[in-house]
Amino acid sequence: MTATSRDRQHQKSKALKPGSRRPAKELCSECGLCDTYYIHYVKEACAFLNQQIAELEAKIHDRHRHLDDENELYFGVHQLMIAARKKQPIQGAQWTGIVSAIACEMLDRGLVEGVVCVQNTAEDRFQPMPVIARTPEEVLAAKVNKPTLSPNLSVLEQVEQSGMKRLLVIGVGCQIQALREVEEKLGLEKLYVLGTPCVDNVSREGLQKFLDTTSKSPDTVVHYEFMQDFRVHFKHEDGSIEKVPFFGLNTKKLKDVFAPSCLSCFDYVNSLADLVVGYMGAPFGWQWIVVRNDTGAEMLELVGDQLDTQPVSSQGNRKQAVQQSIPAYEQGVTLPMWAAQLMGVVIERIGPKGLEYGRFSIDSHFTRNYLYVKRNYPEKLEAHVPEFAKKIVSQYKLPDV
Ligand code: FAD
Ligand code: SF4
Hints:
By secondary structure, the protein is an alpha+beta fold. It contains 17 helices and 13 strands. The longest helix has 22 residues, at 355-376.
């Protein structure tokens, strides 16, 4: 595209209100690409119009994931997986703040000139506001999850306009797939991608319904996480933690809360990032780190002296629990709270831990999402579900739809 035609395209896309053009329609995850002139590439780039994880993995990581290796099948191409936590956690971060620490370090050392990350608006702590941070202070203002769909890529035009040559992007899987398709058009010398896993995201309205349905005090929730102890932990303004067992969630009411994009997503583990920082494959209280390629190794190295680490481990067997959860979810079974609490205690004691918990969570979400796509978008099923996800889902007996 020439500069003039791109400018025209730019003016055209600016003339439209954000949200007015979304080729993926109801499957759109609001990744932000379509708020920019890069909407021109949407047919190839959009994770929901053109699933191309395997092709992009080969391009970005220089090889395909090994489908016969259980760890690669589940967690994607990687050189290294470890559990880590910051020796001095960043107060107010989602976990111990490894993501923010890496981004600050990259700015401090001049490795990048800017960091795409998500702050929140002044009025609403859960309303995402993507920015290009240029100082560690601006990165730290983006710490903690905004558990809502966030148009991170909406700031991409500013990258090219600013003349920036070295950039770090922090984002979730659907954002990163679209980014990888357009990265060569950004005029960068070097792009670093720091991903987090992501699942069951919601619109701002959906989030309110989730909080209202699940927490005793929705207005004071500061952040929450679906934890490895099979409970949702809500942190409140006064520092108190409210724990609600997964098995006590009102699945009937919550079924339509999650965004259709997230109910049809199979990139839980952010396959195309250089480095992934989550928690689900690590012991409780630790973060889970997946180094996918040399760029990811370089990024992790920057904070090596700030971290305690330990090898990843795995314990238990998830298969029966996953198989049983499929009809339970389908029928919208909700246990009375006392039974849910009891089940939570038992499962925490004997249930899957470490990488096996990660596989439990992936299996549960992939089987649910496979059924969702099969039921609602049967014509998309074959192309939209990646081969690794088909292999994972094939381990389970699914109901006819
Ligand atoms: P912090 O230092 O607090 O930094 C958090 C970073 O996340 C910030 O840089 C910010 O820019 C970015 N961010 C915040 N909200 C969004 C958003 N909506 N979209 C894109 N980027 C955002 N990990 C798992 O292991 N399993 C999960 O199921 C899982 N689900 C997640 C769902 C969502 C919506 C998000 C955003 C993250 C999820 N994670 C999950 C990742 C995990 O919760 C932590 O974000 C991660 O471990 C980093 O923690 P930290 O303390 O290092 O991050
Ligand atoms: Fe556009 Fe992103 Fe929505 Fe796809 S998910 S339609 S690329 S904004």
